Amino acid sequence: MVVCGRGKLGYLTSDLVEPEITHPKFDLSQAENSIVMAWLVNSMDEDVSSNYMYFRTTKEIWDDCKIMYSDAENNLQVFETKTQLKEIKQGHLSVTKYYADLKKLWQEIDLYEEIDPLCGDCSVKYKKKKQKERVYEFLAGLNNNLDEVKGRIISRSPFPSTEEAFVDIRREESQRRAILQKGDFQQSENMLC
């Protein structure tokens, strides 16, 4: 997104021809190439980025990444991400952190998922089904002490989006925290008397 948003996509493709060393724009081209290379390398895991530190051009890095992390790698990534989705639970995490972690995994799946263009109605139905599955995933991973509010969410009509379900759960968590803090305050106040 950054590369495209900054108008530097040509450094990844063959669209941009490197000027001759004597050309007035050579230095600018080299500087921009270095910036885009840094964006790419800095966006990688440290274990991966070290392999690209000595490449000369952005295009070389990009082409090598395409070869190294092809569809076979994407399939592995999808498998690993879906496994993480099955295993993720709220546990000791706040609802907000748990939901953020889930959203990150969903976005990763969406990035790799290949969907053929569907007819208008089919596309809408697919998105609704996917949204519903994600609400179920979110609710299933929450701690058992939230079962009552989970039941209310599942019973809602129309069925809520993941964002709406999250807001309801977060609100419940906040109310419980406020009640507990009030109880702790009153208990300590009683001890002082």
Describe this protein's structure:
It comes from Lithospermum erythrorhizon (Purple gromwell). With 193 residues, this protein is mostly helical. Helices cover 68% and strands 0% of the residues. It is built from 9 helices and no strands. Helix 5 runs antiparallel to helix 6 (95-112). The longest helix has 31 residues, at 162-192. It is elongated, with a radius of gyration of 25 Å. The mean pLDDT is 85.
Quick structural overview:
The chain is mainly α.
**What is the strand tally?**
0
Order of helices and strands: HHHHHHHHH
Helix content: 55-70%
Number of helices: 9
**Secondary-structure content class:** mainly alpha
Report the portion of residues in β strands.
under 5%
The biggest sheet amounts to:
none
Q: Let me know the average pLDDT.
A: 85
Identify the overall geometry.
elongated
Terminal residue distance: 61 Å
Instruction: State Rg.
Output: 25 Å
Return residue spans where pLDDT drops below 50 for at least 5 consecutive residues.
Answer: none
Protein name: Retrotransposon gag domain-containing protein
Tell me the layout of helices and strands:
Blueprint: H1 2-5, H2 26-42, H3 46-49, H4 58-68, H5 71-87, H6 95-112, H7 120-140, H8 147-155, H9 162-192
What descriptors fit this protein?
elongated, mainly alpha
